[in-house]
Amino acid sequence: MDLSCTPEEEEFRARLREWLAEVLPTLPPKPSPDDWPGRRAYDLGWQRMLYDAGYADVHWDASPTVRLIFLEEAEKAGAPYVGANFVGLLHAGPTIAAEGTPGQRERWLPPILRGDEVWCQGFSEPDAGSDLAALRTRAWRDGDDYVVSGSKIWTSHAEVADWCELLVRTDPGAPKHRGITWLAMPMDAPGVTVRSLRTLAGSEEFAEVFLDEVRVPVANRIGAENDGWRVTMVTLSFERGTAFVGEVVACRRVLGELARQALANGRWDDPSLRRRLGQLNAEFRALWRLTQWNVSEAERKGGAPGVGGSVFKLRYSHARQELYDAAAEVLGPESLDLGRPWVLDRLSSLSYTIAAGTSQIQRNIVAERILGLPKGR
Amino acid sequence: MRFQPTDDQRALRAGVRGLLQRRFGRGALRAAVDRPGALDRGLWRELGEAGFFALRLPEADGGVGLGLPEAVLAFEEAGRALLPGPLVATHLAAGQVPGAASGQTVVTAVYGGLVEWLGEADVVRGDATGALPLTSVDPMTPLHRVVRAAEDRLPDPVAVLLTAAEQLGGAARTCELAAEHARVREQFGQPIGAFQAVKHLCAESLVRVETARVAVYAAAITADPLDIAAARLLADEAAVRCARDCLQVHGGMGFTWEAEVHLYLKRAWVRAQRMGSSAESEEKLAGELLSEVR
Asked: Residues in domain Acyl-CoA dehydrogenase/oxidase C-terminal (chain A) (predicted)?
């Protein structure tokens, strides 16, 4: 067992650190969360900078350790989050890379890397959230096109996306895990309507997408017809494996800020608060170790991250909520002021035990796939 | 990054597990419960011969010459097997107290205001003068209380880490016992593990075990006192809560003397107390947040 990096990896870290220190001060100010076009431009601009400097494909081609170093250093330096490029870089891109034809890879991967095109995810439906196999959006063949009708929900970045990784039912008669197909749908196709949803944090983070006889070329299908379930499992293993690495680094920074704030406002004198911050320090240290463990396991075995991602997500999503509850304790009455820095984060953290599968779904995954408990009610 | 056990480390772990399964299986465990206060000297010498106590002693001094990560894997197995005796104190005495490394001498120590196995130990480290016997909650760990303010400081970090490793082993075992029971025990016409309420208890146990595991292993690699303090908190939490949840999954059976679950919970309580109050570890970790260099 070893926690050290190779000389090459340390060299990568040093070069990256130097580059970040040089370019981050040149970035324009961050747009407001409600300014979707502004956010799109900002996130794509950052992706373009990464591309020009040779860091754009770190999520795809680098070793898991190099990817970890990248995310760690970027967060420590205060670099922008992956933002609107999330689905393209971490879902659709890896899926097309793994399952697409050479022509499909050539069409869709370079624009993701260069920061030219934004993707969104069309998996969830109003009546099928984590029960993905219950999706009902229909697609039927008409010549060289699929014709798609139905609706999707919780679609992040739909307002500004160029493409949607869309799951549709192509064989309603088949068992529910079969009969699903993965399509790349252009968001400007006739029949696509996007309606924003407002979150409890007051922001418009995601949307409903209505599909009314939208024509998608058969050539936009990734994988075989009715094989979309398998293709999707490839996508989801990427999502649960690497999605939260930078955020653990960010949480550790917040914890230090909380301690200093508590010292400044006198709350530090309360031993129960100090002990709570001490516990959270232990928690986030362990979460960082869990990240390193999952990465070194992926490195040893090769391929996509395994169910370790579910273990991580369960622990992390709850720890993040406890972190911002502790922040509220430090802030006291000011924790009710939306203008204070940690208050919006506290609201946003409520989504972590829900998004990408609720904690209850994650526990089922852990119990069934790791502990071998039977499927059931 | 190679934060996974090497082939040699896996082999070492398998070796210790094999020895303990042979020499301290269920029969021996129940016998130990029925003879409270008696330590199996033959087993102690066998552990010595296998290098359990001399694991970190340099080869030049007759030891095995391995490091903290290997010691942690061995102590995890001891915790898994619920092996009784002052294992941590004897391990730490190897090379300092004659006969400790070979398992000829049983060494105990004063930790957290308590002394374990005072009656059976050949050597006591620390001042146990006037120690008063307790009716120990753990039938396999005789205890004395030491009333001395000087013993209230945080114990040696290596003792803390090895105790955390034992806690990890206990937690992992109770998680397995819960899952095994949930797979075979049927109620309402199906295995109880098919019910989400039971399934989620088991899943949460596994999450606690895996989180404690990485904290303990990382602390063994860095030997950093703050990593060790964090490992201790997570391992104590895992050991106590996994044992409780295992008991819950076993239902009425879990509340009996016959089931092993209570032995794991009681030992977890003893180990958590052995390392002094958890508040000290928490304060130490809180203080670190204020330091500029992080």
From this structure: 226-371
Q: Are A292 and B214 in contact (CB < 8 Å)?
A: yes
B27: which 2 tokens? Answer: 């029969």
Active site amino acids of A: 239
Q: Is the pLDDT assigned to residue A169 strictly greater than 60?
A: yes
Break chain B into its structural domains and give their ranges: 7-152, 157-293
Note the pLDDT of residue A308. Answer: 78
The answer to whether the CB of A194 falls within 8 A of the CB of A158 is yes
B7-152 and B157-293: identical CATH topology: no
Q: How large is the ipTM?
A: 0.95
- Give the pLDDT confidence score for residue A306 in this predicted structure: 61
Cβ neighbors of B185 (< 8 A, separation 6 or more) are B191, B192, B251
Q: What is the pTM of this model?
A: 0.94
Q: CA nearest A274: which of A312, A330, A317? A: A330
In this structure, which CATH number among 1.10.10.60, 1.10.540.10, 3.40.228.10, 3.60.15.10 belongs to the domain B7-152?
1.10.540.10
Question: Around Cβ A346, how many Cβ atoms within 10 Å?
Answer: 20
Tens digits of residue pLDDT in A143-167: 999 999 999 999 989 999 999 999 9
pLDDT digits (tens, 9 = 90+) for B87-136: 999 999 999 999 999 999 999 999 988 999 999 999 999 999 999 999 99
Pairing of strands B123-125, B107-111: parallel
Mean pLDDT of chain B: 95
| Minimum Cα–Cα distance from B225: chain A residue | A282
Cβ neighbour number for residue A222 with a 10 Å cutoff: 24
Nearest to B1 among A65, A375, A377 (CB): A65
Contact A373 B69 (CB under 8 A): no
Please check whether residue A219 touches B, CB under 8 A. Answer: no
Query: What local confidence, expressed as pLDDT, does residue B92 receive?
Result: 97
Q: According to DSSP H, which parts of chain B are helical?
A: 7-23, 26-34, 41-49, 68-81, 87-93, 157-184, 196-222, 225-250, 261-274, 278-290
Domain B157-293, CATH: 1.20.140.10
User: In angstroms, rounded to a whole number, what is the distance separating the alpha carbons of residues A186 and A188?
Assistant: 5
- Probe site for chain B from A2, A263, A285, A377 (most B CB atoms < 10 A): A285
